[in-house]
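User
New here, explain this?
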Amino acid sequence: MAEEKNEPPKMAEGKTESAVTSGSGAATNPGARPQPPTPGPVGDPAKPVAPARPAAPPKPPVKPEPWSSPLLDELLKRFAGAITEPVTFRNQPSVNIVPEQLVAICEFLKSPDGGAYTLLTDETAVDFPKRAKRFDIIYHLYSFAGNNRLRLRVQVGAEERVPSVTGVWPTANWLEREIFDMFGVRFDGHPDLKRLLMPDEWVGHPLRKDYDILRQDRDWVRANLGIDSAQ
């Protein structure tokens, strides 16, 4: 009788030893390297989106408020009937002045008793063509001594003249020339009132509301540029 031999069981075709020992490899194959654990989802789990905050209510519009101060009291006392509409807007006081008293009021405001408004920071104009007093002439004053600002306004018609304040603040020279050039307002007592930006022979004043944005002095353009239109 042939002697029987005990042989190890054969692995199934297509499988390797590592496949057999996977899963419980440490138990079936003590020499196998343990596999790292499968990583989980990165970061914290998604949080619910917070509801949008309701829109803030609109801020109420800022409106001018009545202005009162010792300076205003002194102005009303010295120049009775010449000061109207004293208001303050965004912490800047403003008054209306009649043209006849403009220079005297400005001289007082420049003096120490008047607040020492030694700097005329700007002088400009605004056109309201449908109004009888068509132009607002605006003066912005500054006091270094008190760190204060003051706004003056003079209202005049299209043919009215305004006293020049070049004798009070020399900076008014070119500022009044620009107003004359752009708006056609004339200043009595100005030392050299002529155009500042446009050619001397130019007809019209470009910042008047009735001066069309495409309008030009075609005669000047033809005579000086040799073309029919500068557009």
